[in-house]
Every structure is written in structure tokens, then in C-alpha cells.
Amino acid sequence: MQSSLVSRILEDRSRSSKPTGEWRKLMPKDSALVFNIQHYSLHDGPGIRTIVFLKGCPLRCPWCSNPESQRFGPEVSYVADKCIAGMGCDRCALACPGAVRTAPGTDTITLDHERLDRLDLNEITAFAKTCPSKALTLEGRPMRVDEILDVVERDEVFFDRSGGGLTVSGGEPLSHRTFLTSLLAGAHDRGISTAIETCGYAPYASLASAAEHLDYVLFDIKSMNDAKHREWTGFGNTRILDNFRRLCADHPEIPKLVRTPIIPGFNDSREDVAAILDFLHGLGGADANITYQPLRYHRFGEGKYHALGRNYPMGSVKLDDDLFNAIRDDALASGLAAEALYHD
Ligand code: SF4
Ligand code: SF4
């Protein structure tokens, strides 16, 4: 790995791993932090899905398209284009003077994220709410299972027509074992089909208890190379691969879509993907209800890093289109290709 990339990754990992304030003390009972609920999604499980994003992930992938998902506490993001400081607004500065810097002659503000990190849940929520123009967004608000399901259930007509349902994503949903299990069980009680999107890094007990209430699993396998996995994401792949093996053994009935984001410099070779396909074939492949999809690297998360006061660790790297197409063809030839690949 280039030394400049290594230092960017380490800098971002250090910034994004600092604990936020004493937010857990003020969390309502039986709630988790949700940073988004996305409706009408077509790419995160069968049919039309409603995706619930839970905050917090143990990994730190530098290409993460949802950097606001990574830390376990609440945060505030700031989009300068929406800020009306130039028209005289100073509400956020009045609400928390120590966390906002203004410079004469500029139309924007700068947030002191280290200061914001020390606010408790109520304080940071109130701070974000002061903004009249949505330049400030609170990333992570506590929701209970029934509150989430009430929102999800409004999309039931789409689920019924399309074979869709609820997908719980993150962050890493398995980091919220008890809450996740209740959410999935509650969805089933309401007749809603369920899926999770997971990086697989969690105690197997968390996956096992979720699996009792799952109809579909989207499971990321990023690399078969343990050292590379550790270097790029902060953790090796042993636990992830073991979890997937055990899931296949314990729940052959659950369809599993394995996905690999193809990242320049990390796993962008046909050999990397061939190793993953070999692993999946070794577990039974299509007979074990496994399908596979390589995902094209994109930079959709870049603006979100800036909104959180972070630099985008991947810099300006680009994925070679021809190489991705060859990887995609290998996936098609493997007999494990996900349906979506045939229409890509
Ligand atoms: S596992 Fe997913 S959510 Fe977690 S850091 Fe990586 S890309 Fe982001
Ligand atoms: S409250 Fe919002 S619009 Fe006003 S200065 Fe702060 S960020 Fe900008």
C-alpha cells in the first residue's frame, strides 16, 4: 500500500474511533441509534425494501459510503452549501459557542467536532435542531423497535406486491444483538419479511439469534487475505469467514447473497475474487443457497466524510472498468452470479 494512503487511513481510523460523549446514559430503554430509514430500495434484498440503518460498526473500511454509520455515538454533520451564516444566521454558535468557529468574510462556519463529541445525547440533539436550513444534521437518533416498525409497516403495500420487506443495515446491525433480534422478530410478528446487510464481524451468537428471524442475508466478504483485510479494515477476516461457514451449516434454508466491493489496490484482481468464489463453492455454492455479486467501487461517500469534518481516505483512486468487467464475467461464469448481475 502507498505510504500516503496508509497515513490517510490511519488518520481517519483514529479520528473515527474516538468515543463520543456519555450518550449511552441518556438512551431511552430498549432503543438503538438510527441514522436513516430509506424507503423503496431495489438493491438490498428481494423486491422493494425499506432499509433501517443502525449506527456503529467495528470495521473502518476507507471506502465506506456511509461514514456516518461507523461511530457508535451520535454525531453532527455539516453541509456548507445549505448554511445561511452569510445571511446573518448564528443560531448554532449561540447554542454552543465553543463548538462553532466563524471567520470574518466567509459565509460558512467550522465545527469543532472534538467539542461536539463531549456533548451528551440531549445536548447534541438540541444543537443540531437549532439549524433552520438543514445545514446541520443529527446522525443517530434513538428509536424503539415499535417506532421503527410503525414506520416500516407503512410500506407494506409495496412489500406485498414485490416480495420485499425490511432490511436492517448499518453500520453493523449484528453489533446490536438484543435490539436486532427484537426488531426482526417484531417484523415477522407483523408479517413483514426480513433481511440484514452484514460485514460478518460479530460474535456468532449474534448472527445465530438474528438468523432465527431472517428470510435473507446479504453478507460482505471483502477478501480471503487475512493480513490485507486487517491492514485495510482494522480487523482480519477469520471471524467473518467462520461466521459465514457456520451460517451455511446451521441455516442452509436461508438465501445468502455474498457481496464484494471491488476496491482499487485492495482486492481489484481476478485472483482475489477467484479465491472468494472457491471458498463459496467449497461451502456448497448454489446448492447451499449462496449467490454472489461483485460491487463496483464508487465514491458516493466522499461528501459525507467532509460533512463530518474528515478527509476521504481513498484519495483519487479509480477502478479500472475493464478489470471490473472481467471480474463480473468471472462471477457470471461461476454459476453463483446473483440475479442482478444478469441485468447489470
Ligand atoms: S463494514 Fe460496511 S459499514 Fe462498516 S466500515 Fe466497512 S463499509 Fe462501512
Ligand atoms: S444554524 Fe445552520 S444555517 Fe445557521 S450558521 Fe449554523 S449551520 Fe449555518
UniProtKB/TrEMBL annotation:
Q: Which protein are we looking at?
A: Glycyl-radical enzyme activating protein family
Cofactor field: [4Fe-4S] cluster
Q: Where is this region: Disordered?
A: 1-22
Give the species: Bifidobacterium tissieri
What the record says about family reads: Belongs to the organic radical-activating enzymes family.
Composition-biased stretches, type Basic and acidic residues, lie in: 9-22
Keyword annotations for this protein, in alphabetical order, are:
4Fe-4S, Iron, Iron-sulfur, Metal-binding, Oxidoreductase, S-adenosyl-L-methionine
4Fe-4S ferredoxin-type domain boundaries: 74-105
Q: Which InterPro entries match?
A: 4Fe4S_Fe-S-bd (IPR017896), Aldolase_TIM (IPR013785), BssD/PflA/YjjW (IPR040074), Organic_radical-activating (IPR034457), Organic_radical_activase (IPR012839), Radical_activat_CS (IPR001989), rSAM (IPR007197), rSAM_sf (IPR058240)
Catalysed reaction, written as an equation? glycyl-[protein] + reduced [flavodoxin] + S-adenosyl-L-methionine = glycin-2-yl radical-[protein] + semiquinone [flavodoxin] + 5'-deoxyadenosine + L-methionine + H(+)
Q: Per UniProt, what is one Pfam family of this protein?
A: Radical_SAM
